[in-house]
Write a structure and sequence with these properties.
It is found in: Cell membrane. Keywords: ATP-binding, Membrane, Nucleotide-binding, Transmembrane, Transmembrane helix. The protein is mainly alpha-helical. The protein has 3 domains: about 300 residues, Up-down Bundle (ABC transporter transmembrane region fold); about 80 residues, P-loop containing nucleotide triphosphate hydrolases (Rossmann fold, 3-Layer(aba) Sandwich); about 40 residues, no CATH class. The chain contains 15 helices and 4 strands. It has a 4-stranded antiparallel sheet, covered by helices on one side. The chain starts with 8 loop residues before the first helix and ends in a 5-residue tail after the last helix.
């Protein structure tokens, strides 16, 4: 675990809720008002029918219509501001989580993740987003639960059987739909992993395209990426199918439940035990209840998918540092020395670079150059020998103090959106010849030539 901080997927999710408790409480309260007002609409319409339309009472109708307008305005604004507050929390937490991931990667001592850049990008984007979405679903679940209980209470006041059907049927429908949640969590985790691997492989192939072309391995590389991409596609399709099964199951169960409520209400109306207005209210209320039932039923699947992403983020943040926490400070004169170094493909290497000298190292094996960079960045100790700056081993120096004197920069390739031309000239101010000259200057013209359209 990095920096002695232990994080789990559950801890990340609890932390999001805890540090936004005030905003989320206000958001959930407004969402409850929204849902309750939605439920009151058919009830108020039924009341208007019984007390204004049936007895032809114009004054009561005007009052009822004004009340309906006020109710619609209240539900509209309560949803607008409640959802906005929850969405703001999601965006803030997503950004904070993404910055935490970036900070872990860009820490002066680095992070030993063992991941390709594309995989890291997938965690910082897809997983960070999915992990925070559960905050909004909690709000919808709380408000939906409140309105379901309130609706059941209203139905009990009209007819005990109607209330019992809702109070018993909703938990049964929600419980049965949760059977699919673990399946969705596994599917989503597999999908995120497959997408990360495909993205990482794509970046890796772009980084090594020239060596691949040199040895004629383009087809083999394309075949490998195609296999990885199709695996990600199959995982994504499997996740969508899981959500589809969840939606179909929830709709079917809620449909059966609400049909039973409507049937009981119809029979009571035919027996004269319900007025016309009460029957309209019950039917309208049952139509509305389909939405909160589905929202409550989906919380398990949404929590499972968010938890799967939070676990990936937590595992990433727990990766150890690359560079040990040294305390030494290099002193002038700054002399870099490799004495009898042996590490991986490097064997018996001696090198000395003194101030004012320009030293070039010719390496015929990319693995050897990578190992040398690891040693100079203090990300690894040699198996034999010493790598020293001003007579002190690099791994014993404070990272910030060492970087003031010795800086290592690796060749890095990143994938980006759009074309080469739009990345070089995003505002379209340069002519084609100028763009071609820039591509030639950075030795990217041969890559452009490989594309049929240039």
């Amino acid at each position: 675990m990095a920096d002695g901080v232990a994080l789990t997927g559950g801890a990340i999710m609890r932390r999001m809720v805890r540090r936004n408790a005030g905003r989320l409480s206000a958001s959930f309260a407004l969402l409850c008002v929204w849902q309750l007002c939605e439920a009151l609409v058919p009830i108020l319409i039924g009341t208007i029918i019984d007390r204004a339309i049936a007895p032809s009472d114009t004054a009561a109708f005007v009052v009822g219509a004004a009340g309906l307008c006020l109710l619609m305005g209240t539900l509209s604004y309560s949803y607008r501001f409640g959802a906005r507050m929850a969405f703001r929390v999601v965006q803030r937490e997503e950004h904070a989580l993404r910055m935490e991931i970036v900070g872990h990667v860009l820490h002066p001592r680095g992070a030993r993740t063992g991941m390709l850049p594309g995989e890291t990008l997938s965690i910082a984007t897809g997983d960070a987003q999915a992990a925070t979405l559960v905050v909004r679903w909690i709000g919808f679940t709380v408000s939906s639960t409140v309105v379901l209980l309130a609706s059941a209470a209203y139905l009990v006041s009209i007819d005990v059987v109607l209330g019992v059907v809702v109070l018993v049927g909703v938990p049964v429908a929600v419980g049965l739909s949760q059977v699919i949640s673990p399946f969705l969590a596994r599917r989503f985790g597999t999908e995120q992993q497959a997408v990360a691997e495909a993205s990482g492989m794509a970046t890796d192939l772009v980084q090594g395209i020239r060596p691949l072309k040199g040895i004629g391995a383009e087809r083999a590389a394309s075949a490998r990426y195609r296999t990885s991409s199709r695996a990600a596609e199959r995982a994504a399709v499997g996740t969508v199918r899981g959500w589809g099964a969840m939606g179909a199951t929830t709709k079917a169960l809620s449909g059966v439940l609400l049909a039973a409520v409507a049937l009981v209400a119809g029979l009571r109306a035919l027996d004269g035990e319900l007025t016309l207005g009460q029957f309209v209210a019950v039917v309208g209320l049952t139509q509305f209840l389909a939405e909160p039932v589905e929202l409550v039923a989906h919380i398990g699947a949404q929590f499972a998918t968010s938890y799967a992403s939070a676990k990936r983020v937590a595992a990433f943040l727990a990766t150890p540092r690359l560079v040990p926490p040294g305390t030494g400070v290099p002193t002038d004169p700054y002399v870099l020395e490799l004495v009898g170094v042996a590490a991986g493909p490097l064997q018996h290497v001696d090198l000395r670079a003194a101030p004012g000298e320009l030293v070039g190292v010719v390496v015929d094996d990319p693995a050897a150059s990578d190992t040398l960079l690891d040693l100079l960045a203090a990300e690894a100790d040699p198996e034999v020998g010493f790598v020293m700056l001003s007579g002190t081993p690099l791994t014993g120096l404070d990272p910030d103090a060492r970087r003031e004197v010795l800086l290592t920069a690796r060749h890095q390739v990143d994938l980006f959106d759009g074309t080469l031309a739009t990345n070089i000239d995003p505002n379209g101010e340069l002519g084609d010849e100028h763009v071609r000259a820039l591509l030639e200057a950075v030795a990217a013209d041969d890559l452009v030539a490989t594309h049929p359209a240039g």
